[in-house]
Write a structure and sequence with these properties.
Number of strands: 10
Strand content: 15-25%
Largest sheet: 5 strands, mixed
Structural class: mainly beta
Distance between the termini: 31 Å
Shape: globular
Radius of gyration: 17 Å
Order of helices and strands: HEEEEEEHHEEEE
C-alpha cells in the first residue's frame, strides 16, 4: 500500500471543496452539531506525533492497518460563518478496536503504527482535513465512531462523535439512539469511494456547527461512556 505522507500534509485538499460556501449566505440559522460524551479514552499520554495524518507516525515506513479515509469538513457558527483558527481534534480506535490509552481494553493488541489521535487548525474557510482509517466497532454495544473536539482560544467549544451512515450497529448504540432522530442525521455520514483510487481509499465529510458557549451540561470532558 503506497502512502505519500508528505504530499498529503503539504498540498491543499480539494476533497471538501464542494462544501465550501460563501460565509453568511444562509437564509436560516443552522442546527448546532449535537454534543456527545467524550468518554474515558481521550489520550492520557499524547502520541509522539499529533498531526492530521493518523496513518503514519513521524517518518515511519509501515502504515497503520485499515481502510484509508480522507476525512474533511468545515467548522462554522450557526449563521454559516467559518470558524478559523479553531483546533479540531479527533481520536478513535485502531483496526483492532483499541484506543491509545493506558487503560484501554486489549491494549496489548494495539496497532503501534496507528497514531490514534490528531489535530488540525482550521483555515480561513473553517475547513479541516485528516487522513485516518474508517472506524470499526468497539467492544460492547458501541458502534463504529470517531470522537471530535473543537477548541477555540484554548477552550472546548464542542465535544461530539461521528458515525458511519447506514451502519446497522448504530441503532444498537445507546449513545447514538438517545441523540434523537434529527441529531442522528447530523452525526452519521456516508463513507464513499475516493474516485480514481487504486487502493480502495474512502472519503467522508463531516461539517460541524458550533455555538458561542464553551461548555454544555450535555457534553464536556467527563462523560462516562466511550
Amino acid at each position: 500500500m503506497a502512502i505519500d505522507r508528505r504530499r498529503f500534509l503539504c498540498q491543499a485538499s480539494t476533497l471538501g471543496a464542494a462544501a465550501l460556501v460563501t460565509p453568511g449566505a444562509f437564509a436560516e440559522k443552522l442546527i448546532r452539531t449535537p454534543w456527545q460524551t467524550e468518554g474515558p479514552f481521550y489520550p492520557d499520554r499524547m502520541p509522539l506525533d499529533v498531526d492530521n495524518d493518523l496513518l503514519i507516525i513521524n517518518d515511519a515506513i509501515t502504515p497503520a492497518v485499515g481502510e484509508i479515509t480522507h476525512l474533511t469538513g468545515r467548522v462554522t457558527d450557526v449563521s454559516g460563518n467559518p470558524v478559523k483558527n479553531a483546533v479540531v481534534e479527533i481520536w478513535q480506535v485502531d483496526s483492532n478496536g483499541v484506543y491509545i490509552h493506558t487503560d484501554a481494553p486489549r491494549r496489548r493488541r494495539r496497532d503501534r503504527n496507528f497514531q490514534g489521535f490528531g489535530r488540525f487548525e482550521t483555515g480561513s474557510t473553517g475547513e479541516y482535513r485528516f487522513r485516518t482509517i474508517k472506524p470499526v466497532r468497539y467492544s460492547g454495544s458501541r458502534a463504529a465512531h470517531i470522537h471530535f473536539a473543537i477548541n477555540r482560544n484554548g477552550r472546548r467549544a464542542l465535544t461530539t462523535q461521528m458515525y458511519v451512515k447506514g451502519n446497522p450497529d448504530n441503532e444498537r448504540d445507546s449513545i447514538f439512539r438517545r441523540s434523537g432522530h434529527a441529531s442522528r442525521d447530523l452525526l452519521a455520514v456516508p463513507f464513499k469511494p475516493l474516485p480514481g483510487s487504486e487502493i480502495g481509499e474512502l472519503t467522508a465529510n463531516f461539517d460541524i456547527v458550533i455555538g458561542k458557549t464553551t461548555e454544555d451540561s450535555e457534553g464536556g470532558r467527563h462523560g462516562w461512556m466511550w
